[in-house]
């Protein structure tokens, strides 16, 4: 009994965190936003509906659910080896013995009929089976975390696609408004040329300005269609994007999104948790490989009845039994067991390095998102100041041209720069909102306050929301 409780697996010790204790671009304080469920983090109803539909229909989620069901079944298969195996066996044999082999000197034809219960059990003195079971369990849990990572990444992609839709929509509105203004300018320039008060150069400049805005609108329409196709693939079905709220560039000042401490990543970020489970599995496999050097004890036996005739199978005196304990000790296998142990140790070294690399990559993702968010905020403020200046410049250039104090080229340059800056401001604001989504995903948010997915989602196709 004491031997049955031993294990040769190394004790699991979480490797030291190979990153700084705080993020350089953020002051510690409030808890990480990763603890906010995605349904509370995203407030736009249309975006929530898209995310919910994607979690239900996305094929990557279904594939991940199938892999979880597969890993859980593999764990159950491995765990079954810990228990005795019991089988009901019925066999019948009819054989002829030649006369020269028969003890009676005559050919004999005989029957043997058995009805038995057969049992076998490997006593896990050294923990080999328990370690293999623990390795299968850790792999199952790692697969569960891998699905959570896929779902978190899916939510981020849906949110980014939705923000791109809003960006294209607002930039298209700006382009349409600009086209209307430039069409009116072209009408005026054409009329001035027709009556002789303007030059053909000024008219062609107005035509160029209009064509530039029309080209920009056509490119936006193309990008929006491509983005909707990408959203449809992510959601898993066609999407019908309704017009959303405009004024993206005039959204209120940024909301503080605390990242918490890097140590929280170890529990919040699913790929880190999955890497730690893989490390646990590697440790357990080392224990199983070490246990293979020790004696293997198997208890096998049968209990039942036997007879030469079927109708005598249950008569008195037909009882039969057999008990065969077996102890096997490996003596020579050309280094196979030692090599297998070396393989498990090498895989454990790989698992440690993979864990540390995953932590470092997660830290970088969060740090990059914090840097982008801070720098984009500064760029937005600078662009807003520049936009106000360009609006005044365009107004003054138009006045100077109307009063005959400058050429139309000055108006052309002012309006072109104003249009480009308006478009840039919308892009920057969308990028800033996307950086918040990137930060949220990098911290591992999305499901800490939500029910876990249904394990059987691969069969039903309906993960829990």
TrEMBL record:
Molecular function per GO: efflux transmembrane transporter activity
Principal subcellular localization: membrane
InterPro entries: MdtP/NodT-like, OMP_efflux
Top-level division of the source organism's lineage: Bacteria
GO CC term, one of those recorded: plasma membrane
Keyword Transmembrane attached: yes
Keywords for the protein's UniProt record, in alphabetical order: Lipoprotein, Membrane, Palmitate, Transmembrane, Transmembrane beta strand
Subcellular location: Cell membrane
UniProt keyword Lipoprotein present: yes
Record membrane topology: Lipid-anchor
Gene3D superfamilies in the cross-refs: Outer membrane efflux proteins (OEP) (2.20.200.10)
Pfam families linked: OEP
Similarity-based family: Belongs to the outer membrane factor (OMF) (TC 1.B.17) family.
Protein name (database record): RND transporter
């Amino acid at each position: 009994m004491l031997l049955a409780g031993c294990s040769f697996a190394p004790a699991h010790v979480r490797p030291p965190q190979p990153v700084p204790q705080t993020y350089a671009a953020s002051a510690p304080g409030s808890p990480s936003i990763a603890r906010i469920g995605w349904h509370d983090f995203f407030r736009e109803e249309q975006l929530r509906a898209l995310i919910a539909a994607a979690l239900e229909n996305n094929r990557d989620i279904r594939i991940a659910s199938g892999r979880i069901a597969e890993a859980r079944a593999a764990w159950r298969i491995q765990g079954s080896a810990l228990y005795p195996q019991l089988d009901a066996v019925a066999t019948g044999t009819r054989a002829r013995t030649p006369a020269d082999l028969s003890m009676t000197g005559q050919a004999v034809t005989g029957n043997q009929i058995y009805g038995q219960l057969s049992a076998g059990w490997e006593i896990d003195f050294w923990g080999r089976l328990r370690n293999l079971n623990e390795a299968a369990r850790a792999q199952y849990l790692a697969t569960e975390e891998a699905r959570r990572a896929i779902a978190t990444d899916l939510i981020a992609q849906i949110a980014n696609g939705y923000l791109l839709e809003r960006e294209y929509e607002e930039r298209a509105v700006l382009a349409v408004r600009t086209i209307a203004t430039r069409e009116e300018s072209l009408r005026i320039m054409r009329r001035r040329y027709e009556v002789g008060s303007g030059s053909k150069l000024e008219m062609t400049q107005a035509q160029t300005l209009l064509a530039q805005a029309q080209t920009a609108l056509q490119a936006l329409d193309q990008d929006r269609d491509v983005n909707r196709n990408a959203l449809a693939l992510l959601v898993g079905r066609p999407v019908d994007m309704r017009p959303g709220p405009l004024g993206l560039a005039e959204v209120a000042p940024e909301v503080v999104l605390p990242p918490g401490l890097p140590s929280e990543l170890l529990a919040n970020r699913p790929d880190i948790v999955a890497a730690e489970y893989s490390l646990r599995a590697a440790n357990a496999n080392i224990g199983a490989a070490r246990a293979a050097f020790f004696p293997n004890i198997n208890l096998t036996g049968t209990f039942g009845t036997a007879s030469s005739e079927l109708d005598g199978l249950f008569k008195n005196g037909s009882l039969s039994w057999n008990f065969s304990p077996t102890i096997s000790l490996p003596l020579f296998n050309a280094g196979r067991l030692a090599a297998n142990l070396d393989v498990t140790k090498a895989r454990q070294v790989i698992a440690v390095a993979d864990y540390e690399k995953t932590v470092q990559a997660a830290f970088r993702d969060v740090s990059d998102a914090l840097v982008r968010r801070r720098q984009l905020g500064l760029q937005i403020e600078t662009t807003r100041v520049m936009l106000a200046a360009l609006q005044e410049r365009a107004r003054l250039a138009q006045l100077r041209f109307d009063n005959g104090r400058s050429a139309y080229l000055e108006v052309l340059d002012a309006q072109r720069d104003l249009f480009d800056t308006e478009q840039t401001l919308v892009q920057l604001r969308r990028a800033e909102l996307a950086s918040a989504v990137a930060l949220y995903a990098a911290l591992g948010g999305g499901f800490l306050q939500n029910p876990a997915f249904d394990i059987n989602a691969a069969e039903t196709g309906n993960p829990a929301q």
